[in-house]
Design goal:
The strands form two sheets. Strands 2-1-3-4 form a four-stranded antiparallel sheet, covered by helices on one side. The protein has a two-stranded antiparallel sheet with strand order 5-6. The chain is built from seven helices and six strands, in the order αααααββαββββα. Among the domains are: about 100 residues, no CATH class; about 60 residues, bsu07140 like domains (CRO Repressor). It has about 250 residues and is of the alpha+beta class.
Length: about 250
């Protein structure tokens, strides 16, 4: 087995002097990129749309190649950055002037939760399942769905949450602990515990009817119900385990 060519491994076929040229190229492209990005505004990475994120990838490639490829002139990389930036500025102006274009290119916000109920039908058109929605809500300090007055998946993919005031918060579907760690007890409508004072909610969408349910959920047709909670981490009444047997998790 031949020993590796360490000089080629570290320097390639270029002379050590090329390192100085790489440093100069990097400085020039860094300054050019910062100047052009300054024109694009102050959005953070979490606020970028899919198209804007793709534009950032293109800019990164355009700025990176001229820094260490000696056959890529600096002016070529700067020209790419300038053209992409100007196109993005024009695209932004077009979105600001035309709501139809904005809707076509950016889409519309999607209602995620309304009055403590997960909007499962509206979610059918977005790449998010209920577990992912619950995770996003937990990251915003939501313990149970009843705390949420409205929640939306915005055009950029972020989730905005409008909460009830603490004194107005109704009970709802518990979101903590995460269901991957501990599933809440679930029952079919014909086997619900009859302990007094309990309020039940749909285990799929969180709908909490005013009366004890006697069939599938009218909002999402799910036939599994659980106890609605005011504070998710408060223990459920011990009597529940004596009154009815919850649906097994594998059912």
């Amino acid at each position: 087995m031949e020993a590796p060519d360490w000089a080629k491994l570290w320097l390639g076929n270029e002379s050590p002097d090329f390192l100085i040229e790489i440093a100069l190229r990097s400085v020039v492209m860094y300054v050019a990129l910062m100047l052009w990005l300054r024109l694009l505004g102050r959005r953070t990475l979490g606020q970028l749309s899919i198209l804007e994120f793709g534009m950032v990838i293109i800019l990164g490639s355009a700025a990176g190649d001229p820094t260490f490829y000696d056959d890529v002139p600096l002016l070529h990389g700067i020209a790419v950055i300038a053209v992409i930036t100007l196109l993005q500025l024009g695209y932004t102006q077009l979105l600001a002037r035309s709501e139809k274009v904005e809707t076509l290119m950016e889409g519309k916000p999607v209602e995620l939760v309304r009055d403590g109920v997960l909007q499962v039908r509206a979610m059918a058109g977005v790449p998010m399942n209920p577990e992912e929605a619950f995770e996003a809500l937990r990251l915003r300090d939501i313990e149970q769905l009843g705390q949420v007055r409205r929640a939306y998946i915005e055009q950029g993919g972020q989730i905005s949450v409008l909460r009830w005031r603490p004194e107005e918060t109704p009970p709802g579907l518990p979101l903590i602990p995460p269901w991957d760690l501990e599933q809440p007890p679930k029952w079919h409508a014909d086997a619900l515990p009859q302990a007094g004072g309990l309020r039940f909610c749909c285990a799929n969408c969180g709908l909490c009817p005013d009366t004890t349910p006697d069939g599938p959920c009218p909002h999402c047709d799910c036939d599994e119900w659980t106890v609605a909670v005011q504070r998710a981490l408060e223990p459920l009444p011990v009597a529940l385990t004596r009154i009815a047997t919850p649906i097994p998790e594998h059912a």
